[in-house]
Amino acid sequence: MTGLAEYQRSIRDLLKKRAISTAHDPHLSEIAQSRELSLLRDIAVWWREMAVNENCAWTAGLLRKCGIFHQTVESFYCSENVSSYVERASEQFLALLSGHGDPLIASLAQFELAVFRVRQGDPQEYCIVWDRNPDDLFASLKSGGDLPPPEAEWRYHTRVSRQIPDLVCCDRVRHADA
Fold it and tell me: Does the pLDDT at position 177 exceed 80?
């Protein structure tokens, strides 16, 4: 190890489960195998989960309902350079999930991110396309009921903007492929 900065990067990489060579450093090799490193990683992920729960409540609720909350937050923590500022980290999390392979998770993350940004003063108008009625989704998440199924015939276009009363409006549009 050549210096403090390299040592700190190595510890960070171990915490984030990133591959590093410990073959020539017995100290790092010992840390990599330690129970304490695993505990520190669990605590770091737990803190991220707390922040996501607080600042991305709807998306967190959907991820929990889908049974992928913990693994999604852990993957985010381990793979991204996450800001130490909770608001910025939450924005990073939602931006990442906006491209999720599940269209429902992606739409909800896009919506929550748009609302977050508009409330922060962003003058842009955002449009989020849903494959099911977002009102039914929010009711389901709030009540703990089943998620609404996709609607092949319809798409729901939700606009989020400071120019819209209450920031949000939604239009149901016949889907071209139906």
Answer: no
